[in-house]
Design goal:
alpha/beta; globular
Amino acid sequence: MPVQYVLGEWDFQDLTLQMRPPVFIPRPETEALVSLVVEEESRKCETNSGLCFPVPVSHPVILEIGCGSGAIALSLLCKLPQSQVIAVDKETAAVDLTRENAHRLQLQERIHILHHDVSYSSAEQLQLWGPVDFIVSNPPYVFHEDMASLDTEILRYEDLDALDGGDDGMRVIKTILSLAPSLLKDSGSVFLEVDPRHPNMVEDWLQAHPNLLLVLRAVHKDFCGKPRFLHIQKQSR
């Protein structure tokens, strides 16, 4: 059994989170995904502060798709104290664990946790929370043919639906990007963790769907030097 489940808790960013099977265990490299969102929000605030007219204090609204233990969502709430997060997961165990961790960290007033399986028809339900500044996700992105080669402990104990991204690893990624234009504010951003093979695939897919008005702004590497994180932005009409 993975040590995180044995201990019943694990550190992510500066937080100690409760862990239990089969909820997906957050990996160290995913901390960089949080940092990228924080950096982009800081950049936006700096840009606004240079304007010659007063700009309201930023209160970013963030949608996380596939919240798992709540690691990403709760880290963002801590790093961005003016933010609000909507955290969504299709698994009851994940929703319950995120809620427990939010209460444990006294962040429950700033997070809305939804038990929902995100699909192409999810826009109407998610739009109830209004347009968001950021969509962030560490979605299932393992190519289905690669699933069998994962470590035995992962295959035995973790939620495989949180890993298996379908034949091209992009099943959930495509859903998120298809929903993004109707959920994001103008110039809002999507931040994704992906397989190193995905950046070119995602760029090609976006170019084949110009009606989405999404553009790949940047590809960031993980601490092993592999292209791992995507910044995709909604273009203003």
